[in-house]
Amino acid sequence: MTSSSDRSPAVDVQSPKTYEVRTYGCQMNVHDSERLSGLLEDAGYVRAPEGSDGDADVVVFNTCAVRENADNRLYGNLGRLAPRKASRPGMQIAVGGCLAQKDRDTIVKKAPWVDVVFGTHNIGKLPVLLERARVQEEAQVEIAESLEAFPSTLPTRRESAYAAWVSISVGCNNTCTFCIVPALRGKEKDRRTGDILAEIEALVAEGVSEITLLGQNVNAYGSDIGDREAFSKLLRACGTIEGLERVRFTSPHPRDFTDDVIAAMAETPNVMPQLHMPLQSGSDTVLKAMRRSYRQERYLGIIEKVRAAIPHAAITTDIIVGFPGETEEDFEQTLHVVREARFAQAFTFQYSKRPGTPAATMENQIPKEVVQARYERLVALQEEISWEENKKQVGRTLELMVAEGEGRKDGATHRLSGRAPDNRLVHFTKPDEEVRPGDVVTVEITYAAPHHLLAEGPALDVRRTRAGDAWEKRNAAEAAKPAGVMLGLPKIGVPEPLPAATGGCAAH
Questions:
Q1: What is the per-residue DSSP string for 139-189?
Q2: pTM value?
Q3: Alpha carbon 448 to its chain's center
Q4: Binding site residue list
Q5: For position 185, what pLDDT does the model report?
Q6: 243: Cβ–Cβ under 8 A, 6 or more apart, which residues?
Q7: Sign for the pseudo-dihedral over CA of 228, 229, 232, 236
Q8: Residues flagged as binding site for [4Fe-4S] cluster
Q9: How far is it, in rounded angstroms, from Cα 142 to Cα 367?
């Protein structure tokens, strides 16, 4: 045993505990992880160096219950940490998010080395639960049944200096048969408009120039107060905030996508010409079985109106292939909608059972080989359309917001990457002058691939921005931190240009 005289008190005082947050699932979880990081840093923890891979004093899993085999992946990861925790007295492991809300006590039974289990409604309790687990030397499981406080009131460790998520609602009032999220996130609860705008104004004052409004069903905003035009009013209000250059939102639901929202998008200059509109299926029969409250004609009508009002809008979607009972004719209807809508990109998923959802017990589950074959046909069609739509961008002059970490080959090709107003990814030739993430570069598109564009000529213009200043200031501050306390800027928290969720809750 080591005596107290063998230890260095100076190290105990000067070395703060480190943390690592691992995030799974949708944009909601990514934003929740920003809050978990903020809470832990507010409590005195510092982020573990990038690549520490479980060597932190506290490892937090922010889980998703929507993805296939989510529980197996969680327990596999927990199992890999068990020997490390056994060899490191004082290390703690916490599990939160949707899977924690669903499985509750099961997690501690299957992985008794876990210290804390918390749900989607009480993420603010994490530091207290960690301390309680340490003092009492036993696992703390605390799952709230309803939202205790709107999460945006919590400390937040934003992962990007120039782009930010802004949550406008939590929960969902829909009952889609493939989705368990409403049972885990609860009924929709909206934030006050004034609070949302105040948060955006504060972010802009810090240098943020792009915000993404976030909600499980973002355009149903206002249902709490009975104002069906609340979302369009919010978009227009964002247009009055000086210094806010780009506004995006995800994910809307076709049921709530009204003409006033289209008008607000078209008439508010800083609302970007981009729309992610989940389709899920093009078959009216399947949509009914999914309990999606729109039909093919309604969906295509929305797309037509958006294109009429915003000709250059890039429209993306989510599609599920092989939902129980889907016939070849049903699938052909999905292909028909894809051809008609001409999506810039589609996030396509093979249906798989999600325990706890009505669809999991439906008859006529589709054989795996049939689902796979249909999936491949859909992907091939969408790939062709994506390429054709991208080719239409060649010759256009676009303003790009320079992005961080989006071009894996940028170093080798001497290029940088940025996002066009419609959120298409563009790799462009690195200008002679310094360009920072958050700055704006004007380029001419010279080449199109299915998933990105190239601007191979010299930049036509480079505009240094307050967002670039904020990025530079933040990086300088982080670089000045002592070794071992580097927080870095991991890519996961920067709002994705297109929903990264593979079947996640915000994609429905």
A1: -EEE--SS-SS-GGGS----S-SSEEEEE-EE------TT--HHHHH-S-E
A2: 0.80
A3: 26
A4: 26, 64, 98, 172, 176, 179
A5: 73
A6: 204, 205, 209, 466
A7: negative
A8: 26, 64, 98, 172, 176, 179
A9: 39
